[in-house]
Amino acid sequence: MTVSKRTAVLWWLGGLIAFAITIYFHIPLATLAVPGGMAEHQSAPDAATVDAIQQAWRSDGLLNAAKIAMMMDLIFIGIFGIGCVLAGLHYRARKGNVLRPLGWAALASGVVFLITDYGETIAQFIQLTQFAGDDDLAAFASTLRPIKMAACIGGFLTVLIVLIADRVSSRLA
Fold it and tell me: What is the pLDDT of residues 32-52, one digit of tens each?
């Protein structure tokens, strides 16, 4: 599959913009009762913790804000993850000692990010929309969180590095 560099970069940059917008929607969820905001909900290990967080948000009138923030997460995940995958597809097909392995790394990071962050966020969203924590869903989401964080950071850094390496190598050619 051939993917243009322009398409890959536009999706990836779009993902960064979507991330900034998503963070904006997460800010109100950091309260005195839930200082970690959405991150606290993501790492909640059990139903009791999820219930306490959601009850605090409800008491502060933030339950709908939390739902919107999670929907924004779902949008961000798709755009950024697809951007990493497209960048990976573009660069894995390139010749060169550096670009090809970086392309594979970006592709792998994007796929792992998409799977783990969608899994985590869907598990969270189910609990939020049912307004009931679930031990299995909470454990699932909190287990996926460090994996998705590593994949997100890895995808970001890999795409950034491959873009820089491509620019440097094109100037040297």
Answer: 999 999 999 999 999 999 999
Residues in the chain, how many? 173
CB atoms within 10 A of CB 164: 11
CB 81 within 8 A of CB 16: no
Of 11, 7, 60, 61, nearest in space to 33 by CA = 60
SS (H, E, C) the chain: CCCCHHHHHHHHHHHHHHHHHHHHHHHHHCCCCCCCHHHHHHCCCCHHHHHHHHHHHHHCCCHHHHHHHHHHHHHHHHHHHHHHHHHHHHHHCCCCCCHHHHHHHHHHHHHHHHHHHHHHHHHHHHHHHHCCCCHHHHHHHHHHHHHHHHHHHHHHHHHHHHHHHHHHHHHHC
User: Widest CA span of the chain, in angstroms?
Assistant: 61
pLDDT in tens, 56-80: 999 999 999 999 999 999 999 999 9
Contact 106, 158 (CB under 8 A): yes
Plot region of 96 (φ>0 → left; ψ -120 to 50 → alpha; else → beta):
left
Distance in angstroms (rounded) separating the CA atoms of residues 16 and 81: 10
